[in-house]
Amino acid sequence: MTGFGLGEATSDGLVVRTEIRSVNHRFLQTRFRLPPEFAELEPRVDAVLKKVLSRGSVSLTVNTSRESTPTAVKVDHDLAGRYVKLLRKTAKQLELEDDLQLSHVAALPGVVGSSGDARGHQREAKVVMTSVGLAIESLVAMRCVEGRSLEKDIKKHARVIAQLYTRVSKRMPRVVAAHHKAMRTRAAKLLGDGGQIKPSDLARELAILTEKTDVSEELSRLESHMDQLHKVLRAGGEVGRKLDFLVQELYREANTICSKAADAQVAHIVVDLKTHIERVREQVQNIE
Question: What is the CA radius of gyration of the chain?
Answer without folding.
Answer: 33
